[in-house]
Structure formats: C-alpha cells, structure tokens
Amino acid sequence: MTDGAAGHRKPVRRYNSPRRAEQAAATRAEVLKAARELFVRNGYAATTVADIARAARVAVDTVYATVGRKPALLREVLESAISGTDHAVPASDRDYVARIRAAGSARDKLALYAGAIVRIQSRLAPVYLAIRDAAATDPDSAVLWAEINDRRAANMRDFAADLRATGELRRDLSDDEVADIVWGMNGAEYWVLMVDDRGWSHQRFGEFLADAWARLLLANP
Predict the structure, then answer these.
(1) Who contacts 118 (Cβ-Cβ below 8 Å, separation ≥6)?
(2) What stretch(es) of the chain map to CATH 1.10.357.10?
C-alpha cells in the first residue's frame, strides 16, 4: 500500500516567482537601510536587532532570514555603502576601477579616482566612522575594522603600482609612500573634516583631491 501510494504521488514543482524575489529584495533593502540609520545615529553597541526590525517594520526572524545576525548586518551595511548596491562588489569588479585602469595618464587616473572618492564617501563616511568608534569596545566591529583597513591598504598599493606603470610618478617616492599619501587623503576622516566641518562642496573636494595628488605625486605636475 505504501509503495503504491508513493508511486502515484505527483512530483513537487518548485515555483520561483519574480514578484516574490522582488519583495524579498525590497525587504532586505529596508532592513539594511534601517540598520544603517540606527548604527550611525545610535552606535553599533546600542542598536539591537529588535530595533532594526521595528524600524524596518518586519519581524526579528525576517531580519535574520534576509541578512543575518547583528555582525552580518554591520558587514552588509558597510559593503553596501562601499559598492552603492545592496551587495558587496570586489574592487576589481567596480566600474570606476576599470575606467582608472583604462586611463592612459597618471593625471587622468588620479582625477577619476578623486571623482569616485566623492561618490563613495558621501554614503560611506558615516558608516565607516561608526564602525571605527564601535571597534574600540566591540570585538565584531574590531575584526571588521581591521579587515576593511587591510583591504584599503592592499587596494592603495595596487593603485600606486598602476600609477607607477605610467612612468609619471616621482622617483623619490616609493609605491608604499604613494599608497600612504593617497590613503591618508581618501579616508572618511578627511572627508568629514573638509566637507562636513569646513563646508566644502563635493565638487570642490573632488577637484582639490585630483589637483593635490597630481602636485604631490607626479614628476611633472
């Protein structure tokens, strides 16, 4: 009897609804938006998953299902701020990186990167500084802070090597020194000082970065 019943059972049909996928993506976006706002405003330690769920108007289990636990939320908020999308994008796959590598001159590469920094820091700086502050007391934040700084350092060394390949960099600066100079000026802290504290426009900041880097780094600025 059992075998006979099983033999007549209809195969399970998997149904993938585009609308359901869109709803899931929208829910995830709302969760990340709520997490970002609360982490920046209240700090990572003071924000609970329940707070995020309430702000996103979903259940706590939905937060866990769509993104994950609190450390995963922090990581995804950071990656979204860097990429400008709802997911992480490796540096090598970002559009502006491809344009920089295709540029023929060091000056053009610097100008393209300065423009990218303006677009990135306008959304990243508050998140980045929130993670920096949380890293002082929270182990998960400290791990993420160290990881993102290591990634930044590696990316800056790659950028310095790309600039060096043009033959236009000063010979008295090593690639590590070039990377450190760019690192120091492309950070969220410098953005906040000049844009938020001193009131510079985004355009002015971007133009200043491109000009300052050219003057500091190029043999014939």
Answers:
(1) 202, 203, 205, 206, 209
(2) 18-87, 90-221
Encode pLDDT of 167-211 as tens digits. Answer: 999 999 999 999 999 999 999 999 999 999 999 999 999 999 999
> Taking a C-beta distance cutoff of 8 angstroms, is the pair 136, 220 a contact?
no
The answer, as to whether pTM is greater than 0.90, is no
* Residues in contact with 65: Cβ distance below 8 Å, sequence separation at least 6, in sequence order: none
Looking at residues 31-52, what average pLDDT do you find?
93
Can you name the CATH fold of 90-221?
Tetracycline Repressor; domain 2 (1.10.357)
Please give the Cα distance from 36 to 75 (Å, whole number). Answer: 10
SS3 218: strand
Class of domain 18-87: mainly alpha
Q: Kindly tell me the burial class for residue 57, based on how many C-beta atoms sit within 10 Å of its own C-beta (0-12, 13-18, 19 or more).
A: exposed
- Residue in the structure block whose two tokens are 């491809």: 98
